[in-house]
Structures are given as structure tokens and as C-alpha cells.
Design brief:
Blueprint (H helix, E strand, L loop, with lengths): L3 E2 L9 E6 L4 H16 L8 E6 L5 H15 L6 H8 L2 E5 L9 H6 L7 E6 L6 H10 L7 E5 L7 H12 L7 E3 L7 H11 L13 E9 L8 H6 L2 H18 L8 H14 L8 H4 E10 L5 E2 L14 E6 L11 E6 L6 E8 L16 E7 L3 E9 L8 E9 H4 E2 L5 H11 L8 H21 L4 E5 L5 H8 L10
Parallel strand pairs: 1-17, 2-3, 2-5, 3-4, 5-6, 6-7, 8-12, 9-18
Antiparallel strand pairs: 8-13, 9-10, 9-11, 11-12, 13-14, 14-15, 15-16
Helix pairs in contact: 1-2, 1-13, 5-6, 6-14, 9-10, 9-14, 10-14
């Protein structure tokens, strides 16, 4: 395959990036390595600063040593010493306790110099701190007209808390200044959903209930809850994964054609999908949802582990969710969307599979045909596969066989494949909110998810169990088998 050269990388305007939670897991694993790669590709102006903010004092040398270790541990590819040295030179560390009014002085002193550069506050913290940090920025005079604030997911743990957070942050920042991150929206293949549908005459005429049989969306993780024990005991998979990642994927599959790629045009259409989701209430929650916990089994590292070693033995929080979802509008009426996500599954894998209906009449006698399927691969590799029927080579017989037309983005383009956070950070620095969630999107998603949780409580729905290293509980297979379907993977 001839490779296509990727587009040029345009530098962003000078900035001061304030990372609250500057020594946390997300910053070390994702944000700093993403910024490092953008630094290596010369997208970050030399005068720009990255200021990590943590709640405990730390010597500058100790902070740089921590960052250097993180780059070598979490960056894709080799970390050249000269690149690491020049990147570390633009970093600073400041200790601020967001809940202590008197602790903001060091940050104020760091930002005293007059500057026309953009200022971005990235909140890689628990959502309970979003409001207090926004307040602290306001009280200390650190908010300026060209400022943006980034909120990591989850924005709240239900509709009421999300609304409270949005109200708090919205008291000091205009909606166009607020960037709510869902890192799935930064994945190359997720963005290509728009290109596939609206940049090709091939697919859009087929994107309708008359042609599509059903859609499967799978986001599987092979690791357990690990160091997120406390978080998961209170949240669970429905709120951690479905409310944001899976619903955003569903929206991009199901939206109507926007008038343009303007950020509000796309988000307006996503909001319409969220508002068209059929409610899952207590009357049919048992037949349309599955919730489960993983138990003992072979984990991804090969050893036998127990679920109760990580989470509270009495906890009924789900680490796996499967849903049958319907969208009540003209395009999708009657087409089921099957969503599933879970931890400690057989492998790390995420994909969207669009299953088309079978041909209405076969001219091939007794030979069986397989319905076409378009698969969008999200992780670990990103690409697109289209399954079609062809004649097998040979003379004297006419045998049909399904084959896959594959497109691997890594193989097709001459470029290092950027992490989703690299793209999202650059879009924040550019002031482009297209890949971020708007307030009404977040709250509409919470309203739909909250009713599922309410239905579980009202019906006391059982939490199934599944073995670590499997593809989930048997009940998830039954969810599709009721309609003579099966999961593409592990079905």
C-alpha cells in the first residue's frame, strides 16, 4: 500500500498552561507525554510555559525527575535526551491547595508578568474541586479574557451534581471558555466517523433503518480497577464509561448531517440524538440491561486475582454493563444499538460495528451469504474494515466467501500516530471547542443514565458475575440472543 503523507503541523499561539493535579496519575501518564510529543514536533512556541500545580510542596529538581521518569515510562517511542532536556526547561511546579485561600500566593507570583499569551487552566482533579478551583482563579484575579478552562471527565456523578458543577464553573467562565474533555473524541478513528459518513457518497445513503440491521459498540478493558478503587466503589461502569465514552460514540454514529463542521452545528446534532434516546425504565430494564462484577480468574498479567481483593466485598457496583438502546426518530426507529463495556475482560479492544441487513433475495442457490458489516476499530489499533461477499478463486465452481477490505491508519499514513490527548490539548490551545462536550450534552446524557440507575434500584436488579479474563457474563449474550443476534467478539 502506498502511504499518504500526513498534513503539516501548525504551531499554536504562545500560552501559559496551568495543570491542576500536576503530579497526579492522569498528568504523568497522559498529559505530560502528550505535551512532550507536541514539543518535539515544534508545535509549542518556545516562550510558552507549562505550570504543574499540586497540593503538596515539591522541590523543583524532584518534580523534573518525576516528569523525566514519566516520559520514559509512558511516551510512545524513544525519548531522546536533548528533547527531554529542552522540554523539562519549560516546566515549573507550584504548590496550591485549592481549598485554602492563603495558598494561592505562589501561583499569583508566578503569573505576575503582564502577558498577552493565552492562559489555560487544565483541571486534572476530582470533579469536586472544579468549582473551588474556578472560584480561586476568580478571587485571585487570575482569570483573563483569553482564558480557557478544561474539565476532565466525569463532570459530576449524576445530573444534579453535574448541574451544580456547571453552575459553579459557569459563574466565572463563559460557556465558550469551558472545555469538557472526553478523550475518545480525540481518537483519529472517532473523528473519521464524520469523514466516512459525510465525505463519501458511498455510506450516507445507506445510514438508515431500512438498510442497517443493528449496531454494536464495544469498549473492553483487560485491566481491573487498580488504583481507582475508591472511585469505582462509588461510581461503577455505567457512570464511568457509558455516560460519556459510549454515548458520545453512539451520537457520532447516529447524528443527522450537520450544516457544517462548526463546533456548535455538530454538537447541536449530538444533543438531538441524546434527547431521542428511548428511556430505559423499570418496566423493561431487566430485558434491556445487564450489570455485572468480575470475580476470580486469570487477569491480563497472567496471575489469578480476586475481585474482592480490590473492591469492598459487600459492594454491588458494576464493572461491566451491556445495554440495548433505541433512538426514537425517523432515521433509527426500530434499529437496536447494543452497548457494552467492562473491566478485566479478555483483551483491551474497542470497536463500532455497523451490521447491514441481509440481501432481500439470493441468486446463489443453497449458498449462504453473510450480511455486510462496517467495523470502525478504535483500540488498540485504529482503522476501518468493510466485510463484503466475493467469489472464491477457481474454475468450475461458484463459491462465495466473505472477505474484509481493511484500512489501517498506521499503515496508510507516513506519520507517528498521535495520542488522543495530544490532539485535544492542541485544540484547547487553539481555542477550538469542536471536540469537547457542551453543557447541555453532558446534562442530557446524565438525565438518561440516571433513569437506568433509578430503574436498577426500583427493581433491585441483580448484579451478575463473570470470570476475569472472559468476555463478560452469560446474560450479556442472552441480551442479543433474544433477537437471534450475537456479539461479534466473544459472543
Amino acid at each position: 500500500m502506498t502511504k499518504t503523507r500526513a498534513g503539516s503541523l501548525l504551531p499554536v499561539d504562545p500560552f501559559d498552561l496551568l495543570i491542576f493535579g500536576g503530579t497526579g496519575d492522569l498528568t504523568r501518564r497522559k498529559l505530560l507525554p502528550a505535551l512532550f510529543h507536541r514539543h518535539v514536533d515544534q508545535q509549542l512556541p518556545s516562550e510558552s510555559r507549562i505550570i504543574a500545580i499540586g497540593h503538596k510542596p515539591m522541590a523543583h529538581a524532584a518534580f523534573l525527575a518525576m516528569v523525566n521518569d514519566s516520559l520514559h515510562l509512558h511516551s510512545a517511542g524513544e525519548v531522546h535526551p536533548e528533547h527531554a532536556e529542552s522540554f523539562l526547561a519549560r516546566l515549573e511546579y507550584v504548590a496550591v491547595d485549592a481549598l485554602e485561600a492563603n495558598s494561592w500566593t505562589p501561583l499569583c507570583e508566578t503569573l505576575t508578568l503582564p502577558s498577552s499569551r493565552n492562559r489555560i487552566a487544565y483541571l486534572a482533579t476530582p470533579p469536586a474541586l472544579f468549582g473551588p478551583i474556578a472560584l480561586g482563579l476568580q478571587v485571585n484575579g487570575l482569570i483573563q479574557p483569553n482564558m480557557r478552562i478544561v474539565l476532565e471527565k466525569p463532570v459530576g456523578e449524576n445530573y444534579d451534581s453535574a448541574k451544580s458543577i456547571n453552575d459553579s464553573v459557569g459563574s466565572y467562565f463563559a460557556e465558550e471558555q469551558i472545555y469538557r474533555i472526553d478523550h475518545y473524541l480525540g481518537k483519529e478513528t472517532v473523528q473519521n466517523l464524520l469523514a466516512l459518513r459525510f465525505g463519501n457518497a458511498l455510506f450516507e445513503p445507506l445510514w438508515r433503518r431500512e438498510v442497517i440491521d443493528h449496531v454494536q459498540i464495544t469498549v473492553a478493558e483487560d485491566l481491573g480497577v487498580a488504583n481507582r478503587i475508591q472511585f469505582y466503589n462509588n461510581i461503577g461502569a455505567l457512570r464511568d464509561m457509558v455516560q460519556n465514552h459510549l454515548l458520545q460514540l453512539l451520537c457520532l454514529i447516529a447524528i443527522e448531517p450537520p450544516a457544517s463542521l462548526d463546533h456548535d452545528a455538530v454538537r447541536d446534532e449530538k444533543l438531538k440524538v441524546l434527547r431521542a434516546l428511548k428511556p430505559i425504565t423499570k418496566e423493561h430494564v431487566a430485558t434491556t440491561t445487564v450489570r455485572a462484577q468480575y470475580g476470580s480468574g486469570v487477569a491480563s498479567q497472567g496471575q489469578v486475582e480476586s475481585f474482592v481483593d480490590e473492591l469492598e466485598a459487600s459492594s454491588d457496583v458494576e464493572t461491566y454493563v451491556a445495554l440495548r438502546v433505541e433512538i426514537e426518530n425517523w432515521r433509527w426507529s426500530g434499529v437496536p444499538f447494543y452497548l457494552r463495556t467492562g473491566k478485566r475482560l479478555s483483551q483491551r479492544h474497542a470497536e463500532i460495528a455497523i451490521h447491514f441487513k441481509s440481501i432481500p433475495h439470493s441468486i446463489f442457490g443453497d449458498q449462504q451469504t453473510v450480511a455486510n458489516k462496517l467495523t470502525i476499530l478504535l483500540q488498540p489499533d485504529e482503522g476501518v474494515e468493510l466485510s463484503v461477499m466475493v467469489k472464491e478463486p477457481g474454475t468450475g465452481t461458484f463459491n462465495l466467501s466473505p472477505v474484509s477490505l481493511d484500512l489501517s491508519f498506521k499503515d496508510a499514513f507516513e506519520a507517528r500516530y498521535p495520542d488522543a490527548y495530544e490532539r485535544l490539548i492542541i485544540e484547547v490551545l487553539r481555542g477550538n471547542p469542536a471536540l469537547f462536550m457542551r453543557r447541555d450534552e453532558v446534562e442530557a446524557a446524565w438525565q438518561w443514565v440516571d433513569q437506568i440507575r433509578d430503574a436498577w434500584q426500583q427493581t433491585n436488579q441483580r448484579v451478575e458475575t463473570y470470570m476475569s479474563g472472559s468476555w463478560g457474563p452469560a446474560a450479556a449474550a442472552v441480551l442479543l440472543a433474544r433477537e437471534s443476534r450475537r456479539w461479534d467478539i466473544g459472543g
